[in-house]
Write a structure and sequence with these properties.
By secondary structure, this protein is mainly beta. It is built from no helices and eleven strands.
Length: 108
């Protein structure tokens, strides 16, 4: 896996293959991620739930909201902000993404 001078790792994921409401899993530099699309934007976020480390890849994703399979916490994948429960303050870790020649690169 190649890394550029800005710290982005090349994945083998084609941007065209990433679709809205679907989670593409990837491991980049030992970091487990989920890659998805929301409108025209590719978004990468941690596969590990910030509550108690469940695999968010086994949860659900709909219209920019990911729900954890263990306790049902919900996060906005655009901002990482927690949506439910409303009295919690943790957030979802997100990673910068760029597309080069149709391939997704992620900075972890
Ligand atoms: S581990 Fe994800 S909500 Fe508890």
């Amino acid at each position: 896996m190649a890394r550029d001078e800005d710290g982005y790792w090349e994945t083998e994921i084609s941007a065209e293959a990433v679709t809205e409401n679907n989670m593409t899993t990837a491991t980049v530099d030992k970091t487990k991620l989920i890659v998805t699309r929301l409108d025209d934007t590719i978004i990468a976020f941690s596969r590990t739930c910030p509550h108690a480390a469940a695999d968010l890849g086994k949860g659900t994703l709909h219209r920019g909201r990911v729900s954890c399979p263990n306790h049902g916490w919900k996060f906005d994948i655009r901002s990482g902000r927690i949506l439910w429960p409303e009295d919690e303050y943790c957030s979802l870790k997100r990673y910068p993404v760029k597309i080069t020649n149709g391939i997704i690169w992620i900075n972890v």
